[in-house]
Design goal:
The protein is mainly α and about 120 residues long. The protein has a domain of about 40 residues. It starts with a helix and ends with a helix. Keywords: Membrane, Transmembrane, Transmembrane helix.
Length: about 120
């Protein structure tokens, strides 16, 4: 505690230290007014970049996570495409079955009178 008191007493007695302190604060204020120095407490773009990017390993990990997310999206899209293809195949099969049954019905309708006559012939 005594060292601190001695230093503060020396700073108060010495006109040079107060003069240099006021000069540096004047320069700093002038720089702030010009826009060349950041205000006290404000972050520079470099500080923002450092905070945003983090360490090299964190950046690599973030890139790997993005790649993994993109691969998952790609797989989901491929699953959806396969599901659409399966749905189309099922619908085509249903349409084909419908036409096949329609043809059988048509053939049955054409053969029906002959069949009725044949059945009547057998029964007689």
């Amino acid at each position: 505690m005594k060292n601190y008191e001695k230093e503060s007493a020396i700073n108060k007695e010495s006109p040079e230290s107060s003069k240099s302190a006021s000069t540096s604060s004047k320069r700093k204020n002038a720089d702030v007014e010009k826009g060349s120095a950041p205000e006290k407490g404000r972050k520079t773009s470099r500080d923002n970049n450092n905070n945003r990017c983090g360490t090299y390993e964190e950046r690599i990990l973030a890139v790997e996570e993005q790649k993994l997310a993109l691969k998952e999206q790609k797989l989901e899209i491929m699953r959806q495409q396969l599901q659409v293809q399966a749905d189309i195949r099922d619908e085509l099969h249903n349409i084909n079955s419908f036409f096949s049954s329609f043809k059988l019905c048509h053939y049955f309708c054409l053969l029906q009178p002959v069949t009725i006559v044949y059945i009547l012939y057998i029964l007689a």
